Amino acid sequence: MSADVILKDVNKVYPNGFHAVYDFNIEIEKGEFIVLAGPSGCGKSTTLRMIAGLEGISSGDLIINGKKVNDVAPKDRDIAMVFQNYALYAHMTVYHNMAFSLTIRKVDPVEIHARVMRAANILGLTPYLNRKPKQLSGGQRQRVALGRTIVRDPVVFLLDEPLSNLDAKLRGTMRKELMQLHERLNATFVYVTHDQIEALTLASRIVVMKDGYVQQIATPKEMFDNPENLFVAGFIGTPPMNFYNGVIDKNLEYFEHISGTKFKLTDHQREILGSYAGQNVIMAVRAEYVYIDDAHISKNLESKFEIDVDFTEFIGAYNLIYGNLGDEKIIAKVYDRNEITDNKLVACFDMEKVHFFDVETTKRIR
Ligand code: ATP
User: Does the beta carbon of 343 lie inside 6 Å of ligand 1?
Assistant: First the structure.
């Protein structure tokens, strides 16, 4: 496989001097689904707009399909972009909305017809080709917006929060449709979202950004299991990871939480925490790895603790328990369908799944 889109040390400094993107590096393979994720203002749209050519690149190189395109006009870049606010032409039918960009490029009408019919077929829009946008549902309109890009047959699809105007249920449906579309087209997608669920479900690799800096580039599974730093650990996954302040004891036996509760380290943790004996660290564990059942607790007697329960939510297949471990919050996701009414619960962590982070650098200790 060859890289389709390469960003090499790409920086963006806006004319007012604001440095929006720092040293962005990635090699995107053909057919990948890359999701740029991060909170508002982190630089993800700026990055996408640089790939599209809607923003200039202040320094670094952008290569699409083997060609350096820093100074190539957007229309000559083999890319197509779908925006959050897709404006369809209200007076045109679905067919003509999709055909329009090809018509103005003077593509042969027979070819235009073939491409529109193919896109309509892929997107399930064939029955609606003669309708005007106002006669369509939100999801159908979104598909027409996608159709307008598919007909252009680009090498790379750029999508900027294309689902954010849709309600939650429709977003779920469109997510599935996007995944199928990506498979059918076998094209490269670069997709911007601030929604980490979209990132986890759609991406072949996620890029998490913060304040203009790339924090981690990894597959969804890798990012979920092994977040690179505290920011990624808190951003990816719902509920967010639980974090605990404490100290590694001098003999590297335990993590001692500020509440005094001790957690026995695994052999692997003793190895990687070697230089942290006697030092403060942050321990982190996902809600999924907190257990309140006897079977787990009896196996983890040296790491059990008490949860002061604030409240529980029954979500259907599981319960979410919100409470406190000492003075720090805990959320536990417990696959027990019984109603939980206790004020105090004995619990344990799966210590194999626990991570430790450096207090100063915020990086995962590995
Ligand atoms: P959102 O999810 O809110 O769209 P984002 O991660 O996509 O956020 P960008 O739109 O890339 O963020 O903006 C990154 C930063 O650059 C922001 O702090 C923004 O205010 C700033 N910015 C964007 N456009 C300009 C501009 N034309 N001039 C100066 N600063 C800008």
Answer: no
Q: Which residue's CA is the closest to the ligand 1 atom numbered 10? A: 45
- Which run of H or E residues covers position 184? helix 168-185
Band of the pLDDT at 171, cuts 50, 70, 90? confident
For 126, 173, 186, 202, the CA distances from 180, given in Å and listed in that order, are 17, 11, 10, 10
> From the alpha carbon of 47, which atom of ligand 1 is closest?
11
Angle at 37 (CA atoms; ends 33, 39), nearest 5 degrees:
165
Nearest residue (by CA) to ligand 1, atom 3, is 40
> Per the structure block, which two tokens stand in for 92?
């045109």
Residue 321 CA to residue 76 CA, distance in Å, equals 54
Virtual torsion, Cα 42, 47, 53, 54, nearest 10 deg = -10
Q: Which atom of ligand 1 is nearest to the CA of 49?
A: 11
Higher pLDDT, residue 176 or 70: 70
The model's pLDDT over 88-142, given as tens digits with 9 standing for 90+, comes to: 999 999 999 999 999 999 999 999 999 999 989 888 899 999 999 999 988 889 8
What residue owns the CA closest to ligand 1's atom 21? Answer: 20
pLDDT of amino acid 2: 63
**Cα 43 to ligand 1 centroid, rounded to whole Å:** 6
Asked whether 193 lines ligand 1 (CB < 6 A), one says: no
Residue 1 has pLDDT above 50, yes or no: no
- The CB of 40 under 6 Å from ligand 1? The reply is yes
Ligand 1 centroid–CA 152 distance in Å is 28
Residue whose CB lies within 8 A of the most ligand 1 atoms, among 10, 13, 14, 196, for a mutation test = 14
Residue corresponding to tokens 């890029």: 207
- Sign, CA dihedral 237-357-355-24, equals positive
**21 C-alpha to center of ligand 1: Å?**
9
Least confident of 162-166, 272-276, 302-306: 162-166
* % of residues, the chain, pLDDT over 70: 98
Single out the residue of 163, 145, 153, 12 nearest to residue 89, CA to CA.
145
Ligand 1 atom nearest to 15, measured from its CA = 28
